[in-house]
């Protein structure tokens, strides 16, 4: 628990972090990675380049300060961070390095305003957070049976185009060993070495099929660069270079976006773009284990040619009489049965059939924020809304 001496300084930091948080985290990453270039192998350099990692850390630090006495609000965020850290192999030795450069960045940005008492308070607060993360990560490593930075050699046994920009890869252990079990909705990390930047890079991809097949399937969207963002280094490399027979380094499955497949209450799976991937794993699992369940599957895509995993949805419909599918296409101008033109609108879909339902959302941050707000306006309890974030999280719901 934070000491009574430190708490006033953390509380007073909230408006300061709102104003200077991004400057602090930008300097933090710059200084740390200059002094410890080996850590570039852990951080997503694409997110560094487009600024989303710095923005995410700024919002995380701010959310931590604003909710330091609200463990219930912080718990889901902490759990997500723990799974992400374990998936990339974070170790206890990393935490003192991060703490040193975070406190140093606060001093550098705030100057004389960074009093000894303020820095001491943030050192205490960071220490408490670091200890909690280290303990939780140790438990998760133990449960998985995989140590930090441990990888499985897995071979691609099938490659399949899924819509215009997404390719799915089916993976089996290259030594014919049993593949670890996983929960629908979880993800794995893929480790690649990119010659162009001379770095190992890690990316997380949701498993896009039901468990129990002694294989993993991941579905990778090729991220095309434009004037606002660089192209996805890893996704383009996977699309260009990975074929049947390729060996990849794959982590144990992690992630807490994992609904109870066998529950009796209804469930709504709401996604956009490549956010469909964990939903397909969940949907396929329900089709196999609980086909009588009431399910809404709502997905938004740019166009029909960008729709992925349509075959999975159609196959599920053959065995799930209580499955409703609703597709929304931006580049379409007339509605038809189960297909809607324009942006997703849940108003007519969230009806009495979904009483007491759990709602799972995955897609771009703006999409998830919009659907979260729409569900709240429709009277859905916050405790029944869950979301999976690909990449850095804004934490707008906490700040």
Structural commentary:
The protein is of the alpha/beta class. It folds into 3 domains: 7-144, Orthogonal Bundle (Globin-like); 152-250, Translation factors (Elongation Factor Tu (Ef-tu), domain 3); 267-388, Rossmann fold (3-Layer(aba) Sandwich), CATH 3.40.50. 40% of the residues lie in helices and 19% in strands. The protein has helices at 7-35, 45-50, 52-66, 71-88, 94-110, 116-144, 233-241, 276-289, 310-319, 365-377, and strands at residues 152-162, 166-173, 187-194, 199-206, 216-221, 247-250, 267-272, 295-301, 323-329, 339-341, 358-362, 385-388. It has a 6-stranded antiparallel beta sheet, covered by helices on one side. It has a 6-stranded parallel beta sheet with strand order 10-9-8-7-11-12, sandwiched between helices. Helix 1 packs antiparallel against helix 3, helix 1 crosses helix 5 and helix 8 (276-289) packs parallel to helix 9 (310-319). The longest helix has 29 residues, at 7-35. The mean pLDDT is 90. Residues 1-138 form the Globin domain. In the C-terminal section; belongs to the flavoprotein pyridine nucleotide cytochrome reductase family.
SSE pattern: HHHHHHEEEEEHEEHEHEEEHE
For the residues shown, what is the average pLDDT?
Answer: 90
Q: State the helical fraction.
A: 40-55%
Radius of gyration: 22 Å
Domain count: the total is: 3
Level-2 CATH architecture of the largest domain: Orthogonal Bundle
| Fold-level CATH name of the largest domain | Globin-like
User: Count of helical segments?
Assistant: 10
Distance between the termini: 21 Å
Widest sheet: strand ordering = 4-3-6-1-2-5
């Amino acid at each position: 628990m934070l000491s009574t001496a430190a708490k006033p300084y953390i509380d007073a930091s909230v408006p300061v972090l709102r104003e200077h948080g991004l400057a602090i985290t930008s300097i933090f990453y710059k200084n740390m990675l200059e002094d410890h270039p080996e850590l570039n192998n852990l951080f997503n350099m694409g997110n560094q380049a487009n600024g989303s990692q710095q923005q995410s850390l700024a919002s995380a630090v701010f959310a931590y300060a604003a909710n330091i006495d609200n463990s219930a609000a912080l718990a889901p965020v902490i759990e997500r961070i723990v799974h992400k850290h374990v998936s990339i192999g974070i170790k206890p030795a990393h935490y003192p390095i991060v703490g040193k450069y975070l406190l140093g960045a606060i001093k550098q940005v705030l100057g004389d305003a960074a009093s000894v008492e303020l820095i001491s308070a943030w050192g205490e607060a960071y220490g408490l957070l670091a200890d909690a993360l280290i303990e939780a990560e140790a438990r998760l490593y133990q449960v998985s049976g995989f140590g930090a930075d441990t990888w499985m050699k897995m071979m691609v046994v099938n490659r399949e185009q899924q819509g215009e920009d997404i390719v799915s890869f089916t993976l089996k252990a290259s030594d014919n060993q049993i593949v670890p079990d996983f929960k629908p909705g979880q993800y794995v990390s893929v480790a690649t070495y990119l010659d162009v930047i001379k770095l190992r890079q890690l990316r997380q991809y949701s498993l896009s099929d039901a468990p129990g097949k002694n294989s993993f399937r991941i579905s990778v969207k090729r991220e095309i660069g434009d004037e606002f963002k660089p192209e996805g280094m890893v996704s383009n490399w996977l699309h260009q270079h990975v074929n049947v027979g390729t060996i990849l380094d794959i982590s144990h499955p992690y992630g807490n976006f994992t609904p109870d497949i066998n529950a009796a209450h209804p469930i709504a799976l709401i996604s956009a773009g490549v956010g469909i991937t964990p939903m397909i794993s969940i949907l396929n699992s329900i089709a196999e284990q609980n086909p009588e369940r009431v399910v809404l599957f709502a997905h938004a895509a740019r166009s029909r040619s960008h729709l992925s995993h349509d075959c999975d949805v159609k196959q599920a419909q053959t065995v799930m009489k209580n499955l409703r599918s609703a597709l929304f296409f931006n580049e379409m101008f007339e509605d038809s049965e189960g297909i809607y033109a324009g942006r997703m609108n849940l108003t007519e879909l969230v009806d009495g059939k979904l009483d007491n339902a759990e709602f799972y959302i995955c897609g771009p941050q703006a999409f998830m924020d919009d659907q979260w707000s729409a569900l709240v306006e429709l009277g859905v309890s916050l405790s029944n809304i869950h979301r999976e974030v690909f990449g850095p999280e804004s934490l707008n719901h906490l700040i």
